[in-house]
Design a protein that fits this description.
The protein is mostly beta strands. It has helices at about 20-35, 40-45; strands at about 15, 50, 55-60, 70-80, 85-90, 100-105, 110, 115, 120-125, 130-135, 145-150, 150-155. It contains two helices and twelve strands, in the order βααβββββββββββ. The protein starts with 12 loop residues before the first strand and ends with a strand.
Length: about 160
């Protein structure tokens, strides 16, 4: 499931744009129509519905892949929101030794980036399309990358 398809209902969160009053009206209609009889009206308030902005999210679409030496490894990812994006080689993988970072793209557009502490850094990253991190594999073995988007972290 892509980041854009996720709907936050966890711990009382409702996707932005849904108003509490509308939820109460919908719940009242459902409960009084007899469609749902297992819940009482007071049960609705146990969910503590609140409208809340969806936080920045990143989803790696291909978290595991097996590129060969001297081939490109492309990590596909999607984001929601705008936040700083940091991509770091981890777990014994190093940029320059194991991977040669080639580019980062939003859709077909190649993006500018900075190197900070051996990591790729893009301030205020926002992309309405699929993003791509592309590196050339220089050594055999398992390689790992950490993608940090705001406070959300994913791995490939």
């Amino acid at each position: 499931m892509s980041a854009r398809e996720k709907i936050k209902l966890n711990s009382g969160r409702v996707r932005k744009g849904l108003d509490f009053t509308v939820l109460v009206i919908i719940a009242a209609i459902i409960l009084t129509s007899g469609i749902v009889s297992a819940f009482s009206f007071s049960d609705l308030f146990l969910f503590n519905f609140q409208t809340e902005k969806i936080q920045n999210q990143i989803t790696i679409l291909n978290p595991q892949s097996y590129p060969a030496i001297n081939e490109n490894w492309t990590v596909h990812f999607e984001t929601i929101g705008t936040a700083d994006l940091t991509i770091k080689a981890i777990n014994g993988t190093e940029f320059g030794r194991d991977l040669e970072f080639l580019e980062i793209r939003c859709g077909n557009q190649t993006l500018d980036y900075s190197w900070i502490n051996s990591s790729v850094f893009i301030p205020d990253y926002s992309c309405p399309e699929t993003g791509y991190e592309i590196s050339k594999v220089l050594t055999a073995g398992k390689h790992a990358l950490k993608f940090k988007f705001g406070d959300d972290v994913e791995y490939s």
